[in-house]
Amino acid sequence: MPGLAVVGTQWGDEGKGKFVDILAPRFHTVVRFGGGHNAGHTVVTGGREFILHLLPSAVLHPGVRSVVGNGCVVDPLAFFEEVEMLEAAGRDPSPDLLLSDRAQIILPVHRAIEAREEERLGKHRIGTTRRGIGPAYADKAARRGLRLGDLRHPDYRDERLAHLVAGHGELLGWSESRIAEEIAGTRELLDRFASRVLPLIADTSLVIHETLEAGHGVLFEGAQATLLDLDHGTYPFVTSSTAVAAGAAVGAGVGPGAVGRVLGVSKAYMTRVGEGPFPTEMDPEQNRTIQEKGNEFGATTRRPRRCGWFDSVVLRYARRVNGLDELAITKLDVLDGLDEVRIGVRYLLDGDAVEEFPGEFGALARCEVEYRSMPGWDRPTAGATRLEDLPPEARHYLDTLEELSGVPVTLVSTGPDREAFVRRRETGVFGD
Length: 432
Ligand code: GDP
Hints:
Elements: E1 3-8, H1 16-23, E2 29-32, E3 41-45, E4 48-52, E5 65-68, E6 73-74, H2 76-88, E7 97-100, E8 104-105, H3 108-121, H4 133-141, H5 154-171, H6 176-197, E9 201-202, H7 204-213, E10 218-221, H8 246-252, H9 256-259, E11 261-267, E12 270-272, H10 284-293, E13 306-308, E14 310-311, H11 312-322, E15 326-330, E16 340-349, E17 352-354, H12 361-366, E18 368-375, H13 392-405, E19 409-413, E20 421-423
Parallel strand pairs: 1-10, 1-11, 2-5, 2-10, 5-7, 6-8, 7-9, 11-15, 14-16, 15-19
Antiparallel strand pairs: 3-4, 12-13, 16-17, 16-18, 19-20
Helix pairs in contact: 3-4, 5-6
């Protein structure tokens, strides 16, 4: 199988990490194509839980090459932390890890800018993770950023660094001595980072191109998700990078055709972290039930996630903007034991039916939802691996999701473990 992109179809945290982890051993290379250490992919393996923020989930598989693509932003401190966490667990990722020479570096000043901006926005804040990711992407677009390849040229790096920190420092109201201190501290950090990361920096677009040319499979691992995409998400409550499938081409440096199949990942319900409209949001009691059953607390921030019923308007939209070929539904087991389950079928805006996901913040905030209600199921789906082990009501629920969205639901996850999933239909993702 040449290429496969795995993308989130909701507001993130869909359980992409689990499927990337299952699929990784079948691929030669796994590439993260966007975002920074604001992603939080949780992978449970051998009874241990690993939370990966920056590195591709494939780092848990020796022999599978992991690439941090040019579309990513890399924080040196987050890199050290993640590598040390893996080393402490007996897994040195270095032999299989490459980072793009074109990926941007997140600097400490980026975190300072973000914190200041969120404070300034007050109740209008985005609800970001305050890790400097947005400001690093802003500097990329403003053509001021530092890239990993710049670490190879200390003089050039230092000149750009001084310019960048001086500009931001002025806006932050820092004194000259504070700015000088920031530059010196960052330089020292970048020296330390360079001594560790330089051997891993490469022209990864070329590496991926050669891998595909040789007939090997490449998995493009999405971070965040469709509704957090900078263009197609619920702007301005979005991330600063391209999270939809097309981002795989830009963020890894390949042509669109090389991306190949697109697997969407959706929870069996919806969640959303942070601010912004959420049409199918559950009432507070149902919210608490699903939060607790589904452990809906952010892997990166531990913030509780807002929970809602499955929204087929969102999935139809995700199908279109990603070109989904198939869908994996995760966390079906979290709905076990509910009397009733609901699926959002369409929106109503000022009494008019709305079939397509609105692009305007104001419109989405005013949308009401028309639901299809179905009986829940008593018999647990947790841990099921065969379709016939799912109760008929759960199968009916999946049939309805598929019918409403028009995307074949090929895989169904029934628990956090690697083994806990059902192959519901023939799928193209395993390459068999
Ligand atoms: P990602 O960023 O899309 O990979 O998602 P996260 O890792 O933030 O969130 C997924 C969480 O759900 C992790 O804690 C997974 O271990 C867990 N998980 C994944 N699939 C299932 C499932 O089918 N059932 C349950 N109960 N948990 C799951």
